[in-house]
Amino acid sequence: MDNFDFVLNFTLPPGFDSPDAFVDALFEAGCDDATVGVGLHGMIGLDFTRSAASAEDALRSAVRDVLRAIPGAILVQAGPDLVGLTDMAEIFGFSRQNMRKYAVGGKAAFPQPTYLGETSLWHLAEIVAWMRENTSVRPRDDIFEVSKAAAKINFETEQRRVGRILALA
Amino acid sequence: MAIRPRHPNKEIEAAVEYATRCGWRRAKATGHAWGRLLCPWNDKECRCGTFCQISIWSTPKNPENHARQIVRLIDGCARLTEVRAEKPGEYNG
């Protein structure tokens, strides 16, 4: 069993307005290994440290626990997956400027972002693999594993979302 | 300012104390929650606002991990990062 750190974000169904009403249910359902963020009405974020046989088991069991506590909650995003340069710098313990050097000025081609914009976004798993290949930085294995599992779960979430998009009139 | 109750676990108490030094306030809660910590900036553009308020357990599964999560969530505040860059030496916890 290994420990995996990750964050899940959910939208809440109607009727879950007061944190006092659902925070206890989360505890009872086994989310006592997460810190619950309740700063926004209609949403929650959970910062987990979960012990499991694999990163995917950790993430999927956590999603199940939340849905058991709050039936009708909808998973919006799992992380760490999509990251900007600032997030990467924080994860690897660099300054943002240093991280930028890798991204724009390095000898080896940096992975392509998955979103190109004012703030571009990358899949963390690709960055971890690239760092291992091209630098002396050795990101922790559990970060690599959890970033792959989060990408997989986010893909499934997006697939459902795109289904809804295509059904829009 | 009212004196807040101490958390019975020493690692979590240290994390809550760190939160206090970074400007966070404690609010009451019920049940399994010992309380809630409220970010002084409450910026809804930071992590969509979800972590501007975090619920603290009385008896989490692993107190050390809960303490680490609390510190990580405070340090992850976009506004705190800005303020620390602008005013070195302040809000360092």
Fold and architecture overview:
The complex is a heterodimer of chains A (169) and B (93). Helices cover 47% and strands 20% of the residues of chain A. Chain A is α+β, with helices and mostly antiparallel strands. Chain A has helices at residues 19-28, 55-69, 85-92, 96-105, 124-134, 141-166, and strands at residues 2-11, 34-37, 43-52, 74-79, 82-83, 122-123. Chain A contains six helices and six strands. In chain A, helix 1 packs across helix 2 and helix 5 (124-134) runs antiparallel to helix 6 (141-166). The mean pLDDT of chain A is 94. Chain A starts with a strand and ends with a helix. In chain A, the strands form two sheets. In chain A, strands 2-3-1-4 form a four-stranded antiparallel β-sheet. Chain A has a two-stranded antiparallel ribbon with strand order 5-6. Chain B is an alpha+beta fold and 93 residues long. Chain B has one domain (10-86). Helix content of chain B is 37%, strand content 15%. Chain B has three helices and three strands; from the N terminus they run H-E-E-E-H-H. Chain B has helices at 10-21, 63-75, 78-86; strands spanning 25-27, 33-38, 53-57. Chain B has a three-stranded antiparallel β-sheet. In chain B, strand 1 and strand 2 (33-38) form a beta hairpin. In chain B, helix 1 (10-21) packs parallel to helix 2 (63-75). The longest helix of chain B is centred in the last third of the chain and has 13 residues, at 63-75. Chain B is globular. Chain B starts with 9 loop residues before the first helix and ends in a 7-residue tail after the last helix. Chains A and B meet through helix 1, strand 2 and strand 3 of A and strand 3 and helix 2 of B.
